[in-house]
Design a protein that fits this description.
The complex is a heterodimer. Chain A is built from 13 helices and no strands. Chain A is mostly helical. Chain A has a single domain, classed as ABC transporter involved in vitamin B12 uptake, BtuC (Orthogonal Bundle), CATH 1.10.3470. The chains are: A mainly alpha, B mainly alpha.
Chain lengths: 294, 272
């Protein structure tokens, strides 16, 4: 079907962009990467990785239920992720300690996955599509889906931008923020909803299991590189973008799935950054040791 | 129902898997390591598929991967527990590798084997042979007995690691041993409810027990009763309604128990 890689990168690029599905995939990937880069940065800052992972897995029964009911998959993704965010916010508000909260989150996650499997087995024709629900596909994205993704991303990013300053305050120091009149509980709930939207979008590209690759890893890398919020968010978005573009391109020219490339690239960048950063910190440390002759 | 051999096999294996999951789960929740349990489930998926691609027995891949990952997590120790971002990044990549193995496996083998990935992800308790059942029973018993042997020092080390260390309890070694044990149980539970759902069998009964009592021994007993009960009720339900997959019904029962315990908790607390 494809000619494979030649030695001329411009030719390769033209060959790839000649396919409409590839253009759609790149557009959708761009939207998703920008959004999950931003939402992921706040998620890692707020230490809600487990909640994010659970939301991501809730996307799977959403898509399966949509297929069963005969409605577009996107509707299922958004409905289930929104409901999941509601439940998670309720759990975070009412639980008595971190360990019982995480037990509740884990229960919710397993239950959602069980439901997904139930829907899939009720809808027999889907079994072949199970892999793509879980691990994503970039072949079937239509222009209509791209427009829908863009609309949701604009709304969610606008909400995040509006609430960014108080959200940052509430994430870093909830007690002081509450004392100075910031509605901490409401912000936490709103953030989980936005996170649910971001996850629902991302899972349409990477599948429910690999959302993490775009949500956590670029954000974690950005937080290793800089503590400054705006720069960190920009970095996180940029990394997610780069990983998505390169991953989609590699998947186009090979037989292996896009999820593998996206996860491996983002994890590779994270490891390299951690090692380089660690070496830099160690080189600076001796100067900080007190009592040393200077 | 008991006349069917696959049902007897499923019930016997399920009982011992539930026993081990309930006991280990109680400590997983107590030590706030649910996310680590989640991660081990994903490792199980990748390990099984890697073994399938390499042509080994799938179970060997499962046990090597989860016990190995449990030991690594344990050696990372305190840092690993605090930094769920590191765990998250790592396991996103492990899953990515799993996808790679899945695609290699399904393109290389004939179409009949295409469901191997689904079996690993969602379990196949009705497909257990008599030999599988014997292995499950032995491993379940082994894990449960080992856990009960270390239960007292582990409880001490989980609740107050500093004082326990001062008293001469080897907190670090216990933590590693516990996570290796969790890996063993995770690999075993993967065969019954699948890599994606095993977290429910570990977290839900134990979470319910934690909601109902603060007494550790009563909690351990309750968690075990809940998880074994979930397996029994779930298997019966899926036998009576054959369209419902067994792993979903087991997890749904465990979830229902958790919700009931969560709602009952305030009433019990006020009575104390």
């Amino acid at each position: 079907m494809f000619q494979g890689l030649s030695w001329n990168p411009v030719d390769d690029l033209q060959q790839m962009l000649a396919y409409p599905f590839m253009v759609n995939a790149l557009e959708a990937g761009t939207i998703v990467a920008v959004m999950s880069g931003a939402a992921g940065w706040f998620m890692t800052l707020r230490r809600q990785t487990f909640a994010g992972h659970t939301l991501a897995l809730i996307a799977f029964p959403g898509a399966a239920a949509a297929a069963l009911a005969g409605v577009p998959a996107a509707l299922g993704y958004f409905a289930f992720c929104g409901a999941g965010a509601l439940v998670l916010a309720r759990l975070a508000g009412s639980s008595r300690s971190y360990s019982t909260e995480s037990a509740a989150t884990g229960t919710l996650q397993a239950f959602a996955l069980g439901l997904g499997f139930l829907f899939v087995s009720l809808y027999h024709g889907l079994l072949n599509g199970l892999d793509s629900l879980l691990f994503g596909t970039f072949l079937g994205i239509t222009s209509g889906q791209v427009v829908a993704l863009l609309a949701v991303a604009v709304v969610a990013l606008a909400l995040t931008a509006l609430a960014a300053r108080p959200l940052l305050f509430a994430s870093l120091d909830p007690d002081v923020a509450r004392a100075s009149g910031v509605p901490v509980g409401l912000l936490g709930f709103g953030f989980l909803l936005v996170l649910g939207l971001a996850v629902a979008e991302t899972s349409q590209i990477t599948g429910a299991l690999l959302v993490f690759a775009l949500l956590v890893t670029p954000a974690a890398t950005a937080q290793v590189l800089t503590p400054r919020p705006w720069l960190g968010i920009a970095l996180s978005m940029g990394l997610a973008l780069a990983v998505t573009w390169v991953g989609l391109t590699l998947a186009f020219f090979s037989v292996y799935p896009v999820g593998f490339y996206v996860t491996s690239l983002s994890f590779g960048v994270y490891v390299v950054v951690r090692i380089v950063r660690g070496a830099a910190v160690r080189r600076r440390l001796p100067r900080l040791v007190p009592g040393q002759a200077t | 129902m008991f006349a069917q051999e696959f049902m007897r096999n499923a019930l016997i294996a399920g009982t011992f898997i539930g026993l081990a999951c309930g006991l280990v789960g109680y400590f997983v929740v107590l030590r706030a390591q649910v996310f680590a349990g989640d991660a081990l489930g994903h490792v199980a998926f990748t390990g099984a598929l890697a073994a399938a691609v390499a042509g080994f027995d799938i179970r060997a891949g499962l046990f090597v991967a989860t016990i190995g990952a449990g030991i690594v997590l344990g050696l990372l120790g305190e840092r690993a527990r605090a930094d769920d971002v590191v765990i998250g990044s790592f396991f996103a990549w492990v899953l990515g590798l799993g996808v790679l193995f899945l695609s290699i496996f399904t393109t290389r083998s004939s179409a009949g084997n295409g469901t191997a990935g689904v079996r690993v992800l969602f379990g196949s308790i009705y497909g257990l042979s008599a030999g599988d059942v014997r292995t499950s029973v032995l491993l379940g018993l082994f894990a449960s007995v080992l856990l009960l042997v270390i239960a007292r020092p582990l409880l001490f080390a989980s609740l107050d690691p500093l004082v326990a260390a001062a008293q001469g309890v080897r907190v670090g070694a216990l933590g590693v041993l516990f996570l290796a044990l969790l890996g063993l149980v995770a690999a075993q539970a993967t065969q019954a409810v699948g890599a994606l759902l095993l977290l429910g069998l570990i977290a839900a009964p134990a979470g319910a027990a934690h909601n109902l009592t603060t007494n550790p021994y009563r909690g351990l007993i309750l968690a075990t009763l809940f998880s074994v009960g979930s397996v029994w009720v779930g298997l019966t339900l899926s036998y009576v309604f054959p369209t419902l997959p067994p792993s979903t019904m087991v997890i749904s029962t465990a979830t229902a128990l958790y919700v009931a315990a969560f709602l009952a908790a305030p009433a019990i607390a006020s009575r104390r």
